[in-house]
Amino acid sequence: HGQVFLDGVAGEDGRPGCDPIVFEWLLCSGNPLFLDPYWRRHAAASAVVVSGWHRMSYTTSDATFQSVELERQIRFLHTAVGNAIVDDKHVVFAAGSVQLINALVHALSPDANDASPPARVVATAPYYPTYRTQTAMFDGREYVWGGTTARWANASRNSTATTDGYIEFVTSPNNPDAQLYSPVLGGSAAAIVDHAYYWPHFTHIPAPADEDVMMFTISKLSGHAGSRFGYVNIYSFSCVRMWALIKDENVAKRAKDYVQNSIMGASRDTQLRMLGTMKAMLANLHTEEDIFAFGHDAMRTRWLKLNAIVSRSRRISLQKIQPQYCTYFQRIREPSPAYAWVKCEREEDVNCYDALLKANIITRSGVYFEAGSRYTRVSLLKSDDDFEVLMERVTDLVNAEKYED
Ligand code: PMP
């Protein structure tokens, strides 16, 4: 309470003050504060001290703009967790994976001087809306937002149309509904597979992922969303497997060029902090202080609590997720999704977001995910305190049904 931080921001748990707009956004967003207690337990081991003279140059000014050591630790972590095959991949750092959305769409699109039509960027509903908003913000000569795959998948099944020139975003496990998905377009379409949540906190790991272009972010891995660090693993010979127009291009190089041109390379300070974080996580794997055991336990407990309350409701329901065998924990693990994908069942609750808002529960409407207003997303990643308040409000909402019958 009332602590003053080194950066001069006063606030509980380091959270910003109650600017109503920022505060509302934080409550419904995927702000990963569920890991805050873990890092409080590992405060010294994860601390990084940086002298004033350290790494002052622009990241573009020498060959070390991507920390070789950090890249090595990232590869270790994937191999140790068994969630991705990285030996044959290039790693490109960026300021959060939001930046990678544009970097990769640019890298996979035909050159602006090319005579070919712009690439069509698509995703299957319900999908993470930032793919649409970021693509729409920059679309033009190189690429356009093409809507959901439903439209294109049908078109390509019914005619001889090819999937050339399509870039498909796939999130696995998905934000908002936590299901594991694969690309649906196939053929010569390029797929960008966003594995932000493909860590044992949030899902079982059936096998290491091995797609040509895989996005990851520290935000959902260690919880350091404010550091803005994401990376992509790109298959070294992805140019051969990608669609015709870019087959001679080097996708990893184009993605790297994008990052260099837009922010002059990922922040050195962030890279240093990430190195400390990676080392602390790696040192504790499979011990009592394993971050994934901690994260899974926190998220599983939340999911159980929410299910126990919602199972009494005829008004709202949740997505169904089964316990599954996880290669990391080497046992069947219970579900622990990052988000609850809530459906309003009553005919009059056409707008599920509004129905929950009336009960003082801030969610993100299914409309943003192109899934319709009957659905809304509840973030379960928040701080313990916020989660407890959420449980109180959901309980009140469900209890109120008794008096309505
Ligand atoms: N991809 C997905 C699927 C996400 O849910 C999020 C964050 N909510 C991001 C990317 C963005 O993460 P970052 O903090 O790395 O920009």
UniProtKB/TrEMBL annotation:
Residues 29-397 form the Alliinase C-terminal domain. Keywords: Membrane, Pyridoxal phosphate, Transmembrane, Transmembrane helix. One of its GO terms (biological process) is amino acid metabolic process. Its cofactor is pyridoxal 5'-phosphate. It comes from the Eukaryota. GO terms for molecular function: carbon-sulfur lyase activity; transaminase activity. The keyword Transmembrane helix applies. Belongs to the alliinase family. This is Uncharacterized protein. It comes from Digitaria exilis.
